[in-house]
Amino acid sequence: MTGAGASGGGLETWTYHQLEDDAARWAAWLTAQGVLPGDRCAIFAANDARWIAAYFGILRVGAVAVPLDTNYKASQVA
């Protein structure tokens, strides 16, 4: 099943293996930045495969993902 499609959006399609690898990289980076279980991490990005990998990376750390709409103005996000 590792070759099956996990996500698609636009022209980009990832396998589950690619998604797993990228989520692991996100988790490692977040941990290196000092993110701990229970911390809140905002995701301010377009909804695509990278967003999904970041989301799962946050969950791997045990943090809480807080998705933000990219259509918001800066004053609405702050």
In short:
With 78 residues, the chain is of the alpha+beta class. Helices cover 44% and strands 22% of the residues. Strand 1 and strand 2 (12-15) form a beta hairpin.
Structure description:
The radius of gyration is 13 Å and the shape is flat. A hairpin with a 2-residue loop joins strand 1 (5-9) and strand 2 (12-15). It is built from 3 helices and 4 strands; from the N terminus they run E-E-H-E-H-E-H. The strands form 2 sheets. A two-stranded antiparallel ribbon has the order 1-2. By secondary structure, the chain is an alpha+beta fold.
Question: How many β strands by DSSP?
Answer: 4
- Give the topology string: H per helix, E per strand: EEHEHEH
Low-confidence segments, ≥5 residues, pLDDT <50?
none
Biggest sheet strand line-up: 1-2
Distance between the ends: 41 Å
If you average the pLDDT, what whole number results?
86
The proportion of residues forming helix, as a percent range, comes to 40-55%
Strand proportion: 15-25%
Q: What is the CA-atom radius of gyration, in angstroms?
A: 13 Å
- Shape call: flat
Secondary-structure class? alpha+beta
**What's the helix count?**
3
Q: Characterize the largest beta sheet: strand count, sense, and whether it forms a barrel.
A: 2 strands, antiparallel
Break the fold down into its secondary structure elements and pairings.
Layout: E1 5-9, E2 12-15, H1 16-32, E3 40-43, H2 49-61, E4 64-67, H3 74-77
Parallel strand pairs: 3-4
Antiparallel strand pairs: 1-2
Helix pairs in contact: 1-2
